[in-house]
Predict the structure.
Amino acid sequence: MWGTVAKHLLKAKVRCHTTPLQVQKSRNFLSRSLLQFTRWQHSARFLAEELPASPLVMIRNVESLEKERFVCVHWEDGGQSVYPFVWLRDNCQCPQCFLHSAKARKLPIEDLDVNTGVKDVTLTNSKKVSITWPDEHQSEFDGEWLKKRCFSKHARAEMQDELFASEHQYWGSDLQIPTMSYEDVLNCDQTAYQWLCALRKVGIVLLEGAPVKQGELLSLGKRIGYMRLTFYGYTWQVQDKADANNVAYTAGKLSLHTDYPALQYPPGVQFLHCLKQAQSGGESEVVDGFHVCRKLREQNPEAFNILTSAQIDFTDTGVDYCDFALQSKQRIIELDPKGNLLRINFNNATRDSVLDIPADRVQPFYSSLRAFVDLMNRPENTFSYKMQPGHVVTFDNWRILHGRRSYQSEATVSRHLEGSYLDWDVVLSRMRSLKKKLELDN
C-alpha cells in the first residue's frame, strides 16, 4: 500500500550518494532561526527487502445475499466483505465492459441495470469470484482486487490514503527541513519518489546543488510533468523592481501568505530557486498552516467556524505574461466535504476591499482573521531560514504560509529568486507513477 511504502521511504536510509546524515545550522541569525537541514541518505536500490511482502489474498467461500443484494466474500483470515450487486456489475472487468489498455470503463451507465440480481456466484481456485448475471453475462473478480475495494470504513480509509497520500506530519519552529540533492532528484527515481512523499507529508523540502542559472526550474518541472502557466508566466522573477506589479517584487517585508488565492483554483505546489541572496536580510519564514488551523479549531472554535464559512473576495490586476484582472471568492480555511483541512487561501495583499458579507458580520470576521494571523505569527509556530544560491525550496502552497524579511535594496539586484507553480494533480500523478515503476523494477 502507498502509505506503507511512503512511511518506509521516509524513515529508511536510502542512498544515491554518500552524504552522511547530519544537521546543518545556519550561522547568519539567532538560535530561534537556526536552519536545521535534515540530510536524507539515498540508496542505489529500492528498499523492497524492508517493505512488508503483500500476502496472498485467499478466499474461503462466497455467497449471494439476495435480500441485502450483496455478494459476501469470506476470507481465509476469518474476515468478510460485502459487495453490492450493482457495483459488481458496473465494474465488470471483461473486455466487453472494460478497456484494460486505458484502465477505463466501457459499459455505459444507461446500459446498467441498477436493480440487477445475480444468477450464480462461484469461487474459482480460492482466488477469484465468478458471477453469472441474469442475462448470462459473466464477470470474474480477483481476490486481491476485491480486498482493496472492501466497503468497510477501515478499508476505504486505507485506499484513500494510498491514492492521495493524505498523512501529514505537523510542525512548528522545531521544523527540520528534509534536504536532498537536486541532481539526485533529477536522476534517481528513488530519490524523486522520496522527495515527493516528503513534500506531501511534511509540506516542504529543500533541494541543494541546483545550477545557479535562470530557467533551471524548467528541468525540475519536467521531472514531474509540466508546470502551471499563470498570468506571471511559467516562471517568474522575485526581485526588487521599479513600478512592481506585485508586492513580492519589492525589498520590503512580506507577511505570511499563500500564493494566488485570486485564482479560483490556486496552484498546489510552489518552487523557489535562489539565484542571488542579499547580504543582510531576506530570510524566509514558513508556517505549517494546517498545524495552526488545528490549534485555532481547539482554542477559538468561533473564529475557526467564521473563517471556514465566510467567502472572501480576492483580486489581482496588472500586466505581466499578459494583462489580467482576476477576481475570486474563497474561504480563508477551506474544508473538504468530510470536514478535513483542504486548503488555506490567504494573501493580505490581494484581499479585496469588496467584502460580500452583511455589515453586522464584518467585525466578527476581522476579529477571527486577526486571531488566525496572530496565532501563525507566534514564535513557536514560525520557522525562519535563509536560502543560498543553488537552493530550491519546494512546498505545499495549499498548506504552507510563507513570507520574507525585508532586505536592503541596492542599485543592482541584491536578491533574486525564480519561482514556478505546479498543480497537485500533476505532482500526485508522478508520485503514483514512480511508485509503480519502483515496484515493477524490484
Summary: The first strand starts at residue 23 and ends at 24. The mean pLDDT is 89.
